[in-house]
TrEMBL record:
Source organism of the structure: Entamoeba invadens IP1
Basic residues composition bias: residue spans: 196-208
Record's keyword annotation contains DNA damage: no
Keyword terms, alphabetized: Nucleotide-binding
Entry-linked PANTHER family: PTHR47978
Residue numbers spanned by region Disordered: 185-222
Protein's name in the database: Uncharacterized protein
GO molecular function, one term: GTP binding
């Protein structure tokens, strides 16, 4: 689902995605949102937004992805403006590199220290290395991994040819964000969407004839992975 702007941004988890051209940013978003992936290069000439709900720790989290492609960055630079108004409402920034593109590394090498990419201390930053080509180049992979480690940015490897793997990476990123920001999770738990869910679950428990054992309850509470819904 595409939206024209950051609708209801205060009640959503906003994720900005940046990268050089042809790194697979838009394709990753399509995979996460269960949309068809185009085999041809998708030019992102304007900022585009997609929405998705995920479930983390029994809590429904509405996500908004902001797809900021290389052409969009060039427009900001040519006009003399910056992306700060966009970046300041982001909770997570994901920098996407490609194994077959040293240019993608050169483009994002200075990202963690750049005002353009780093608007404040409250933003969590992550790195994804997208294997969008069968010819994996170890040089790029090693550079990107070193870059992520030096800047304390969690590092993940994906391939849009493996949709389940891509979704697992998104799950880990969202879960990591809430592990580092527990108060943010509490805010979403108070969302009316989750209150309605709790009411339904409570009614189901009352109608259940077989009570849960303490072992089952403990196993349930120990789950920390996200589920895309």
């Amino acid at each position: 689902m595409m939206c024209d702007n950051l609708r209801d941004k205060e009640n959503r988890l906003n994720i900005g995605i940046f990268g050089y051209q042809e790194t697979g940013k838009t394709s990753l978003i399509h995979v996460w949102c269960n949309e068809p992936v185009n085999n041809e290069y998708i030019r992102t000439t304007e900022m585009e937004y997609s929405e998705l709900n995920v479930t983390v720790l029994d809590t429904t989290i509405p996500l908004t992805f902001g797809d900021c492609g290389f052409e969009v960055v060039e427009k900001f630079m040519d006009s003399g403006s910056t992306a700060l108004p966009f970046l300041k409402v982001m909770n997570i920034l994901i920098f996407v590199f490609a194994t077959n593109s040293i240019d993608s590394y050169n483009f994002l090498e200075g990202s963690p220290s750049s005002v353009f990419f780093n608007p404040g201390a409250n933003v969590e930053q992550y790195v994804i290395l997208n294997m969008n080509d069968l010819e994996e180049k170890d040089e790029t992979k090693n550079l990107v991994k070193e870059h992520a480690e030096q800047n304390n940015m969690p590092f993940f490897v994906t391939s849009t040819k493996n949709p389940d793997g891509c979704k697992t990476v998104l799950n880990k990123i969202v879960n990591s964000y809430f592990e580092n920001n527990p108060n943010a999770l509490e805010k979403f738990k108070n969302n009316p969407l989750n209150k309605n869910t709790k009411k339904i679950k409570s009614q189901k428990r009352k109608s259940s004839k077989t009570p849960q054992s303490s072992h089952e309850v403990n196993n349930h509470n120990d789950k920390k992975c996200c589920t895309i819904v």
